[in-house]
Every structure is written in C-alpha cells, then in structure tokens.
# Entry
Amino acid sequence: MRTSRGCGQTAGLLFTEVVIRLDLSNDDAITPAATMQVIEPVAVLLQELPEQDRQALAEAIHQFWQQESDPERQLTAWEAPGTPGLLA
# Structure
C-alpha cells in the first residue's frame, strides 16, 4: 500500500533525489559546472521561501535521509540541506 505524502514531503523527496543523482553522477556524464547550473537557480528559489517552508523542506529531506538504506546515498541526502545556499 502506498503512503500518502503531502506536497512538502514530495518536494523534499524530489529535491533530495535530484541532488543525490547529480552528486553521485560520473563527472564525465554530468560535470560539476553543469551540476551547479542546476543547483544555483534552485537555491535562489529556496531562499525565497518563508523560513517555515524551508524548515519543512529540511525536515522532509531529513526523513528521506533516515529511510535511505544505501550508505553513499544516505550521506548525500544527509548533506543536502547544508549544501551552500540551498536551505541556509
């Protein structure tokens, strides 16, 4: 049975999945510069969110991190909220 997620939880899951895939991608497939071209506009949008919404997104990412079983993906998810400019 699928669990119902709220919009904030779904956004946190989606955001975390994108960050993980970009972070763990082969640099030949997705360069660090290309990664930053994706992350920077997202960081600007996230900084425009009210503090309460940024905290809710950080909590959703934290929940995702706790449920992740792959150690490398878990580390990336754990670091995601602290990525410079994202939720700061």
About this structure: Residues 7-24 form the longest helix (18 residues).
